[in-house]
TrEMBL record:
<dbReference type="GO" id="GO:0005524">
    <property type="term" value="F:ATP binding"/>
</dbReference>
<dbReference type="Pfam" id="PF00485">
    <property type="entry name" value="PRK"/>
</dbReference>
<feature type="domain" description="Phosphoribulokinase/uridine kinase">
    <location>
        <begin position="6"/>
        <end position="183"/>
    </location>
</feature>
<keyword id="KW-0113">Calvin cycle</keyword>
<protein>
    <recommendedName>
        <fullName>Phosphoribulokinase</fullName>
        <ecNumber>2.7.1.19</ecNumber>
    </recommendedName>
</protein>
<dbReference type="InterPro" id="IPR006083">
    <property type="entry name" value="PRK/URK"/>
</dbReference>
<keyword id="KW-0547">Nucleotide-binding</keyword>
<dbReference type="InterPro" id="IPR006082">
    <property type="entry name" value="PRK"/>
</dbReference>
<keyword id="KW-0808">Transferase</keyword>
<comment type="pathway">
    <text>Carbohydrate biosynthesis; Calvin cycle.</text>
</comment>
<comment type="similarity">
    <text>Belongs to the phosphoribulokinase family.</text>
</comment>
<keyword id="KW-0418">Kinase</keyword>
<dbReference type="GO" id="GO:0019253">
    <property type="term" value="P:reductive pentose-phosphate cycle"/>
</dbReference>
<dbReference type="GO" id="GO:0008974">
    <property type="term" value="F:phosphoribulokinase activity"/>
</dbReference>
<dbReference type="InterPro" id="IPR027417">
    <property type="entry name" value="P-loop_NTPase"/>
</dbReference>
<keyword id="KW-0602">Photosynthesis</keyword>
<keyword id="KW-0067">ATP-binding</keyword>
Length: 326
């Protein structure tokens, strides 16, 4: 029996988890994807949190044991009865029955905080926009969609900072890919459509071979709109791929070709003529976002999910072959 492939998307509040989740589900086909938001595993509702003086980021404020149990069940293809937290009302609603599709995307604040949970994912992504950009996104989203005033959101960010530092940001070390959308030259007012992306690629999963981009194009890797280099992240060596929002279609096509050429399903998606929607996604405040950095990020993550599917199926075939031999 095939099991679902599980993608984790972890990051602080308003880091862009829901937006990226939507974009990847769109590429994989929404009918193939089950989305789980781990905010549903909050232990206390909004009123209780305020009374107790605990933030939603604290592990004690979440049923992480049940979250982990559900992840293991989903990984083996079993259904779960998932709690439901409403960001609209700040309270809980009746639980819902969920049977996993071919792909499961699990997005939330504390998805990598326990060893058992980490072991459940096939691909782990951590979202890390610069803090001023995240604050801007959070103010916009929480004032428009969650009924908070700007002052309340800014106060909440200050209150949450110690927990962000202690419990959220350290989870970056467990990810296979760290995604940071960032404005060029610290210009916060730059329109979101022109954000660059920095992708930190850890050697924990095999990435497409991007080294050929260094030797192609204008030859000046450092000044090019697409840059590949080596760095360290949380003390460990990593590859870093950066794509500027103003990269040209020709430059981006080369990169997309590398990602798409050995993944048959992706080939159709990569063709911009038949798929003009590539890299387009509806943000959680209703805006339409579309950019080459977003398209490449979606493609790379989808590539890894499809690869995980192939590996998993290959593994099964080998097991069957061995069983036949015995
Ligand atoms: N890649 C992106 N480019 C531009 N804006 C973004 C991007 N990701 C998120 N945003 C903005 O940030 C807001 C918060 O994002 P959201 O996906 O709701 O965060 P999270 O699910 O992590 O809390 C969105 O409403 C959108 O305005
Ligand atoms: O930090 C988050 C997580 O959501 P996200 O990652 O989408 O920001 C929310 O503030 C809590 O879930 C509480 O929700 P609320 O503030 O609605 O009570």
């Amino acid at each position: 029996m095939t099991r679902p492939i599980i993608l984790g998307i972890v990051g602080d509040s308003a880091a862009g988890k829901t937006t990226l989740t939507r974009g990847i589900a769109q590429v994989l086909g929404p009918e193939n994807v089950t989305i789980i938001c781990t905010d549903d595993y909050h232990r206390y509702d909004r009123k209780q949190r305020a009374e107790i003086g605990i933030t939603a980021l604290h592990p004690d404020c979440n049923y992480l044991d049940i979250m982990q149990q559900h992840l293991s069940q989903l990984r083996t293809g079993q259904p779960i009865l998932k709690p439901v937290y409403s960001h609209k009302t700040g309270s809980f609603e009746p639980p819902i029955y969920i049977k996993p599709n071919k792909f499961v995307i699990v997005e939330g604040l504390l998805g990598y905080s326990t060893r058992g949970a980490r072991d459940s994912y096939d691909v782990k992504v951590y979202l890390a926009p610069p803090e001023p950009l995240r604050a801007k996104w959070k103010v916009k989203r929480d004032t428009q969609k969650r009924g908070y005033s700007e002052e309340q959101v800014l106060d909440e960010l200050t209150k949450r900072e110690p927990d962000s530092e202690q419990f959220i940001r350290p989870q970056r070390q467990w990810s296979d890919i760290v995604v940071s959308f960032y404005p060029p030259s610290d210009d916060m007012d730059e329109s979101n459509g022109h954000l660059n992306v920095r992708l930190i690629l850890r050697p924990t999963i095999p990435h497409p071979d991007f080294t050929q981009i260094i030797y192609s194009g204008d030859g000046a890797n450092l000044t090019s709109a697409i840059r590949l280099g080596l760095d360290r992240d949380m003390g460990k060596p990593v590859d870093v791929l950066e794509v500027d929002g103003h990269a040209t279609l020709e430059q981006v096509n080369k990169l997309e070709h590398i990602i798409c050429s050995d993944m048959p399903y992706l080939r159709n998606i990569c063709d911009r003529e038949s798929n003009p929607e590539l890299g387009k996604v509806a943000g959680t405040t209703g805006e339409t976002l579309q950019s080459y950095p977003l398209a490449l990020t979606q493609l790379l993550i989808t590539y890894h999910m499809l690869r995980a599917t192939q590996n998993h199926q290959l593994g099964e075939t080998q097991v069957v072959e061995q069983l036949v031999k015995i």
